[in-house]
Amino acid sequence: MGKQEYCVTGGTGFIAAYLIKSLLQHGHTVRATVRDPGDEDKVGFLWELEGAKERLKLVKADLLVPESFDDAVRGVDGVFHTASPVLVPYDDNIQESLIDPCIKGTLNVLRSCSKSQTVKRVVLTSSCSSIRYRFDAQAASPLDESNWTDLDYCKRGLRGELPNTALGFVHIDDVVAAHVLAMEDTRASGRLVVSGSVAHWSEVIDMLRPKYPDYPYESKLSAQKGDSNPHSMDTSKIAQLGFPPFKTLEQMFDDCIISFQQKGLL
Ligand SMILES: NC(=O)c1ccc[n+]([C@@H]2O[C@H](COP(=O)([O-])OP(=O)(O)OC[C@H]3O[C@@H](n4cnc5c(N)ncnc54)[C@H](OP(=O)(O)O)[C@@H]3O)[C@@H](O)[C@H]2O)c1
């Protein structure tokens, strides 16, 4: 694929930042949307990325402002839509703080894309949360692109210390590679499950504790019931597109810990 111009929404985000880094390294031009391009504390690190000074543009856009993304996507070849509220207060405001920005924001982005006349593909970053929270997760496993989370399941509203939750984990390198594949491989369409391994949080702690004994670990398991049900993810769709084997849970956490150590966070 030749050099393209891509828009990445939510440029200050975790997934977006790694994606922007990879796209710039591959010689593409990137328009990253942020809510405040002048906020150096939030966007400064993007300007340090290799190729940023030559090929990165920051464009102001907000998910909740209609037509906000028009300028950002006009003229680009493809759009990676990663902007979304993720960690929001767990209260009665979920509709306003999470659901509205996700749905209205995505529609805003898609409307801007359809107006642009240049956007050929849109890759929308979702989550295993859109698949995995089902009463019948175990029986329905391996969960594939045809499965959706159950709305009633999500309305139960429970939480605790060490989450009593089993969920899909995936290395950020695989996330970035999957986004690029979804954008550049014209055979890719619809939903794509991108999930390295499913594990319970207690398994993650059991894996880390002997390897990194000096760090403190949460050991009190939440009394929350229902999210620990074993399940598995069917990743054959992306494998059939030539995606290599996913990195292991151990690689994910080793690289995560190294990154935290390098940044002085651990
Ligand atoms: N990280 C994971 O482990 C993971 C796993 C599965 C799925 N995902 C999904 O991947 C997507 C991105 O996740 P992430 O971890 O990269 O999230 P993140 O680091 O929290 O980044 C979210 C981005 O969205 C932006 N944003 C939030 N509300 C906005 C609004 N109203 N208007 C414009 N921008 C807004 C944020 O901008 P500000 O900086 O201005 O707040 C930020 O740039 C989400 O849909 C998430 O559910 C993430």
UniProtKB/TrEMBL annotation:
It comes from the Eukaryota. One of its GO terms (molecular function) is oxidoreductase activity, acting on the CH-OH group of donors, NAD or NADP as acceptor. Residues 7-129 form the NAD-dependent epimerase/dehydratase domain. Keywords: NADP, Oxidoreductase. Belongs to the NAD(P)-dependent epimerase/dehydratase family. Dihydroflavonol-4-reductase subfamily. This is NAD-dependent epimerase/dehydratase domain-containing protein. It comes from Linum tenue.
